[in-house]
Automatic annotation (TrEMBL):
Taxonomic placement: Eukaryota, Fungi, Fungi incertae sedis, Mucoromycota, Glomeromycotina
Protein name: 8700_t:CDS:1
Keyword Coiled coil: yes
Sequence ranges of Polar residues compositional bias: 95-105
Highest taxon of source: Eukaryota
Organism of this sequence: Funneliformis mosseae
Family: Belongs to the SKA1 family.
Signal sequence range: none
Gene Ontology molecular function terms on file: microtubule binding
Length: 248
């Protein structure tokens, strides 16, 4: 822009000089130079108009960029507030189970039909935790236990695990039980560890022994020996320690 203005001023100064010369006497050479200067001035005016239009468009774009920056900054501040104030574990929407059959082994491995779930009041010494949440495992090979939605097919598995403790549930726990020695996040981290143990257990039980290592085979037979008529084929676990005291 500065170069164009400088060029324009130089041409104007030359034009003034030629006008002074023309007043003393006209000549063909002077007329040709004046025509060239007139054309040059026309081009300069066109460029100046184009530059002015471009600058106006850039001003509008700059204002829009400032608005976008302000919105992004507002969203950034909101996200920072959420990270500082929201709990690490948020409760999910758990739909009530509509299943009536639970099978821990594929039918083609046990050569049996899926067994009926044993009600909680008929479990005896077996302790089952409720509610349970579904853990998404798309591949059958990765899912150690499942609920059969099609009796004739064994390709659909639904893994189960303990659900997180919600804020309201944790507040309803009597203070004398935990005595403020443990937070809800610690409890939910323990639930994560528990779900990993359950998945590992039933992954081993579902696997063929020929594919297991020596250490995994030992665990396999340990789990098998712990089964009885009440627990065989049913997702279960047995409480053998105090959960609260273990989380201190």
């Amino acid at each position: 822009m500065e170069a164009m203005i400088k060029d324009f001023n130089e041409r104007t100064r030359e034009l003034k000089n030629f006008m002074l010369l023309r007043a003393e006497g006209a000549c063909e050479e002077t007329d040709e130079i004046l025509c060239e200067l007139r054309d040059s001035l026309g081009e300069l005016e066109t460029r100046v108009l184009q530059m002015s239009k471009f600058l106006e468009e850039e001003k509008v774009a700059l204002e829009r960029a400032k608005e976008v920056k302000a919105k992004l900054q507002s969203q950034h501040d909101h996200l920072e507030w959420m990270c500082q104030h929201l709990s690490k574990h948020l409760p999910g929407n758990i739909e009530p189970s509509t299943y009536d059959q639970t099978n821990l082994h594929p039918p083609n491995e046990r050569n049996e039909q899926p067994q009926q779930c044993v009600p909680n009041h008929a479990q005896g010494q077996v302790h089952e935790q409720d509610p349970l949440q579904e853990i998404d495992l798309p591949l059958v090979e990765e899912n150690p236990f499942y609920v059969s939605t099609q009796p004739t097919s064994n390709t659909n598995f639904v893994a189960m695990g303990l659900s997180y403790i919600t804020v309201s549930e944790f507040k309803n726990v009597p203070k004398y039980i935990h005595n403020n020695r443990i937070s809800r996040d610690k409890v939910n981290e323990a639930i994560d560890d528990f779900n990993k143990v359950i998945q590992e257990k039933y992954t081993i039980l579902k696997s063929q022994q020929s594919t297991l290592s020596h250490k995994m085979k030992q665990k396999y037979w340990k789990y098998k020996e712990a089964e009885n008529e009440e627990t065989r084929g049913i997702l279960h676990f047995i409480v053998i320690f105090n959960v609260i005291s273990s989380l201190k």
